[in-house]
Design goal:
about 475 residues, five-stranded parallel β-sheet, Helix Hairpins, Cobalt-precorrin-4 Transmethylase, domain 1, five-stranded mixed β-sheet, 5 domains, Methyltransferase, Cobalt-precorrin-4 Transmethylase, Domain 2, alpha/beta, 10 strands
Length: about 475
């Protein structure tokens, strides 16, 4: 492509530092120019400029503003103003004008809107000398991230099974904030490398653990952080590839045969096993069961992708969009500080979504899956009803209702009537659990576990005595039960 004639703006890359890294094109422009504007004069290449060149910089804006976004906006505006002059403007930045550079792309975009011609003079970016210093190849997959973008994040936005290069770690304060984001995923002792002043005579690579990146005495404007991979198969994308491989023609015959319907029992089983790990308060078991549950989710998404129904990206985008939309008090202007109000607002937003999608009006209880355990459904029904004020004003009303239902159960004479009244009792018990701040399904699982442990103690004692359970008296079994209860 031929260069843009008579550009209003020349975006010039100064390279990584050493004046020897200036391109021949950049040097020729510098020799022919009478003035140049620099984003910052704090760059080693400035010392090698041709004599007689008038040098201006925007360093004063950096000193006047605390917010980098404001700094860059002011610089962009000033460059566009200078471009309106008959001679235009030559604006130079460290590295490449469009690589890891906030002002260059924005100037180019706004100039196009205003019909101003822009010439880009390539420069060696910080990437080439950085990877040379690291003796590393960025291929096949190295994430390149701006440290300032990571500071506002709560979790690293790149796959941990591949390395990452984080630019603009220009102070120990930035490093300190950065490591908090990274340590949400990486261990404190994860080995990392700080690359200082790549491409200059002061170039240095410093090896240290992640938790110590804010303790380096060498961190400065030309510092980057190289984050080696956490390990193979540690990223969500790796798992998706594994499942896709299992479903491929060369994959597993069993996995290839599965459908949404054949996997239904597996999904339910894994969900219950995850609940069991939660009930046991066992983080090791929970980690394993969450993996098994994730397997079911990714399998369903893979099958859907093969059927042309949807992809995992659709799943992730859908739930992301829904959560942002339903949390206006976090991502919008709404002010809600009470958890109960959050739930009420959530229901209002759901109803608005249904209307916007043209869905039929649904009752408050319609969204609760009846395939859940009956006790959990009873709990969910009563929680939903309570949100709109359909509940007792105080817990005594629940106790009174329970006594009433128990009396009706005692008075019932036919099996059908007894079953009906028993259901009413259980329904009131679920409501009582809500008032007491307990999940009835969880409470019943805990009671089941206690019964299992205590009855198993009776069986163990019977085997120890070489007696069948049927030979034991109720008093003997009760004594063992009480002993197990005390333990």
């Amino acid at each position: 492509m031929s260069p843009t004639p008579n550009p209003a703006i020349t975006l010039l890359g100064l390279g990584p530092g050493d004046p020897a890294h200036l391109t021949r094109e950049a040097w020729q422009i510098l020799e022919d120019a009478s003035e140049i504007w620099l984003r910052t004069a704090q760059h080693p290449a400035v010392a090698g400029f041709p004599p007689g060149l008038t040098v201006h910089s925007f360093d004063a804006i950096y000193e006047a503003e605390d917010d980098f976004a404001v700094v860059y906006a002011r610089i962009v505006a000033e460059v566009l103003r200078l471009a309106e002059r008959p001679q235009g403007v030559i604006y130079a930045v460290p590295g490449h004008p469009l690589v890891a550079e906030s002002t260059g792309p924005e100037i180019r975009r706004l100039a196009a809107e205003r019909g101003l011609a822009v010439k880009v003079v390539e420069g060696i970016s910080f990437l080439e000398p950085t990877f040379t210093a690291l003796a590393a190849d960025p291929l096949p997959h190295t994430a390149i991230v701006d440290a300032l973008d990571l500071l506002a994040a709560h979790h690293p936005p790149f796959p941990p099974s591949h390395p990452a290069l984080i630019a603009q770690v220009h102070s120990n304060f930035v490093a300190s904030e950065l490591k908090l984001t990274l340590m949400a995923l990486y261990p404190d002792e994860h080995p990392v490398r700080l690359v200082h002043a790549a491409g200059t005579s002061a170039e240095m690579v410093e090896d240290l653990p992640l938790h110590a990146i804010d303790q380096s005495a060498r961190t400065g404007l030309l510092t980057s952080l190289y984050l080696p991979a956490l390990g193979e198969n540690t990223a969500f994308e790796d798992f998706q590839e594994l499942i896709a491989h299992l479903r491929a023609p060369e994959g597993c015959p069993w996995d290839r045969e599965q459908t949404h319907q054949t996997l239904r029992p597996n999904l339910l089983e894994e969900a219950y096993e995850t609940l069991a790990a939660l009930d046991a308060d066992d983080p090791i078991a929970l980690r394993e069961e969450l993996g098994d549950l994730l397997l079911q989710i990714v399998l369903h998404a893979q099958i859907a992708a093969e059927y042309g129904e949807f992809t995992m990206s659709d799943v992730l985008l859908g739930i992301h969009t829904k959560l942002v939309r339903r949390h206006p008090h976090v991502f919008g202007d709404a002010v809600i500080k009470d958890a109960g109000k959050v739930i009420q607002n959530w229901e209002k937003l759901k109803e608005q979504e249904r209307k916007a999608n043209g869905e039929a009006v649904k009752g408050l209880l319609d969204g609760i899956p009846v395939a859940m355990p009956a006790l959990a459904v009873a709990d969910a029904y009563q929680k939903r009803a309570a949100r709109v004020g359909f509940e007792w004003p105080e817990i005594q009303g629940v106790w009174d209702k329970l006594e009433e239902e128990l009396a009706e159960l005692k008075a019932a004479t036919t099996p059908e009537h007894q079953a009906e009244e028993l259901g009413d009792v259980l329904f009131v018990v679920a409501n009582l659990a809500r008032w007491l701040g307990a999940e009835p399904e969880t409470a019943l699982r805990a009671a089941n576990a206690k019964f299992y442990q205590r009855f198993t103690a009776i069986e163990i004692e019977a085997r120890r005595q070489n007696r069948p359970l049927s030979a034991m008296t109720l008093e003997e079994m009760d004594a063992i039960w009480n002993a197990a209860k005390k333990k």
